[in-house]
Structures are given as structure tokens and as C-alpha cells.
Write a structure and sequence with these properties.
This protein folds into two domains: 33-146, PurM-like, N-terminal domain (60s Ribosomal Protein L30, Chain: A); 153-297, PurM-like C-terminal domain (Phosphoribosyl-aminoimidazole Synthetase, Chain A, domain 2, Alpha-Beta Complex), CATH 3.90.650. By secondary structure, the chain is of the alpha+beta class. The chain has nine helices and 13 strands. Bound molecules: adenosine-5'-diphosphate and magnesium ion.
């Protein structure tokens, strides 16, 4: 149906909202990145993001423990702050609960929320409570980054090497999507030692998110199929590109920095950094280079809430 959300799609809708909004100059980065960047002090910019989990879409009560639901709701926001190269500071939690839900269940959700808060130094400072048909958890989070140093999706340059942290695919089946560790340590290490041109977190799948990064950077990309770090022997390239909910980092470095990263001593406790391709001109589009060196277009695989 024309004019329906199904026809517009999630990304079409966000583009429509974005076109209709004009911000003050103190908004350094508005809609379109993992978090907004706001002018704050002489030394620091503020990061601001929100993410909502809806029962039945992001988790199922029979497959996820309440602790995991709480963990995930907080962790997805920490992941977006990390993707900007920042540190999370404070969060508010808005909750919708069905009225037959047990208090014990809610206590466990909060144990999960607090576990992430404690691990990453995020203060839980408020929220809102409502009755809802299904469990809904919306977290909004603030973070900080050195003034002018937020790493956006838009900074990739032609010739850059594209990297991902960790391993991709199968996150829902393996349960990783409920218990993942946001890559704050990796993002901080990268920001401290390299000039990261562009970065985002992988929520919708590499095959979809690489389009977000290249669109923001007005560039194209070639992903090398043999370079994709699949998360298990049973995970195909299609799954690694399309499954989503990896919550790994996708970032780009100049060739010089890419070589430095490849030669750097691995740091204990950090995920490995895997080169997966390179940034090319926009007119070359986004393609997958297979083992036999043929290229095929990567359609926007990955998740759209309305399709
Ligand atoms: P992420 O997966 O990193 O959280 P999304 O794909 O959800 O990012 O959103 C992309 C961008 O669009 C973000 O900058 C987000 O803040 C913005 N956005 C998403 N939904 C809305 C909305 N309903 N109104 C305004 N901005 C939105
Ligand atoms: Mg994100």
C-alpha cells in the first residue's frame, strides 16, 4: 500500500523525519548517527542516544531471562555511545509492564540493567513507568567525548581499510544478542592510538550497516568475502552479512593506520580487529568480492522493522 510504513520502510521514515528537522548550531551531529553530539564544555561534547526494546521483537519471554532483557536494554545504548568513541555517563529507563508481570521478574530486569551500569560506570538517574500490553524498555543515555573528537559514520575516505571487531553472524541463535559486551574498551583503544575516520556499531548486520556508513560518507565499499570473520563454522557469509544484532564495531582507518593496527601487539582482553574490505568511490557502490575475485552487489540486507 502506498503511503504505508511498509512502503516507506524504517530508514525511509527516519530520512523523512530528519528532513523535517532543523537544529541549533550547538547540535554538532543530529539525526543519522549512533548518538547525537551536543556542544557541552570547552573540553567536552555530550553524546545522547536512545534505544527501545519491545517484547516479541527484540526478545521473547520464553527465550530470554529477565536479567538478560535488562542487560540488553542498557547494553545496546552503551554500544551506541562506544561507537562514537565516547564514555557513557548516565541513563534513564522508561518501562512499560503488563500488569500480571511478577515483581520478581521486574527485580531481575533491574539486576540486568544495573549490572551493565556498574560495569561501564553509567549512573541510572531516572525513568518512567507505565502499563503496557507487552514488556517495553526504553533507555536514553548520555555520554562524553573530548570536544570535536566524536567519531561519526560520515568520515570514511576513499582508500580506507574497513574493519570489524570480533566475529559476525548467528547472534540470535547463539544468544549473544542478549548477553553481549558493548565494545567500549575496543573503541577507546582505537580512539586513543589511531585516527579512526568513521565508526558505528553493527546492529542491523554488516550487509545493511555498511550501506549506512558509506551513505553518510558519500562513498562505496568492497567487502572481501574471505575476510569476513564468521562467528562459527556453521555460519554462512549471508548470515554474517544479514543476521544483525552483532553489536560489534565497524570502522575505517587510513592504509597507514591499518598497517599500524595490524602490526600492533594484541591487547589482552580486547576483541581482535579484522580487516574486511576497503572504501571506494560512491559510483562503485557496495559490493562483495568473492574468493574467485568476482564482485557482486550487496543489497541492503539486514533488518528493517517495517518490512
Ligand atoms: P542505531 O541502530 O545506531 O540506534 P537507528 O538505526 O535506530 O540507529 O537510528 C538511526 C538514526 O536515526 C539515529 O541517529 C537515531 O537517533 C535516529 N532516529 C531513529 N528513530 C527516530 C525517530 N523516531 N525520530 C527521530 N530520530 C530517530
Ligand atoms: Mg548504532
Amino acid at each position: 500500500m502506498k503511503n504505508s510504513l511498509r512502503a516507506l520502510g524504517e530508514f525511509g521514515l527516519i530520512a523523512m523525519i530528519r528532513r523535517s528537522i532543523k537544529n541549533k548550531p550547538s547540535v554538532r551531529v543530529g539525526i543519522g548517527d549512533d548518538a547525537a553530539v551536543l556542544s557541552f564544555t570547552r573540553r567536552k561534547d555530550l553524546l545522547f542516544t536512545t534505544d527501545m526494546l519491545v517484547e516479541g521483537r527484540h526478545f521473547r519471554r520464553d527465550r530470554a531471562t529477565p536479567f538478560e532483557i535488562g542487560w540488553k536494554a542498557m547494553a545496546v545504548n552503551v554500544s551506541d555511545i562506544a561507537a562514537m568513541g565516547g564514555l557513557p555517563t548516565a541513563a534513564v529507563v522508561s518501562a512499560g509492564f503488563p500488569k500480571d508481570l511478577s515483581v520478581g521478574f521486574i527485580r531481575e530486569i533491574y539486576r540486568g540493567l544495573k549490572a551493565v551500569s556498574r560495569k561501564f560506570g553509567v549512573d541510572l538517574v531516572g525513568g518512567d513507568t507505565n502499563r503496557a500490553e507487552t514488556i517495553t524498555l526504553s533507555v536514553a543515555m548520555l555520554g562524553e567525548v573530548r570536544r570535536g573528537k566524536a567519531i561519526c559514520r560520515s568520515g570514511a575516505k576513499i582508500g580506507d581499510v574497513i574493519f570489524v571487531t570480533g566475529f559476525l553472524g548467528g547472534s540470535v541463535v547463539s544468544g549473544k544478542h542478549l548477553k553481549f559486551t558493548p565494545r567500549v574498551a575496543e573503541a577507546r583503544y582505537l580512539a586513543r592510538h589511531f585516527k579512526v575516520h568513521a565508526m558505528m556499531d553493527l546492529s542491523d548486520g554488516l550487509g545493511s550497516d555498511i550501506h549506512r556508513l558509506t551513505e553518510a560518507s558519500r562513498a562505496g565499499a568492497v567487502i572481501s568475502e574471505p575476510g569476513i570473520p564468521v562467528s562459527g563454522v556453521k555460519i554462512s557469509t549471508e548470515q554474517a552479512l544479514g543476521d544483525g544484532e552483532d553489536f560489534e564495531l565497524l570502522f575505517t582507518l587510513s592504509v597507514k593506520d591499518a598497517v599500524r593496527l595490524a602490526l600492533a601487539r594484541p591487547v589482552a582482553g580486547l576483541q581482535p580487529f579484522h580487516p574486511v574490505g576497503k572504501i571506494v568511490s560512491a559510483k562503485e557502490g557496495v559490493t562483495l568480492e568473492t574468493k574467485d575475485m568476482t564482485r557482486r552487489k550487496i543489497r541492503t540486507l539486514g533488518f528493517d522493522h517495517f518490512r
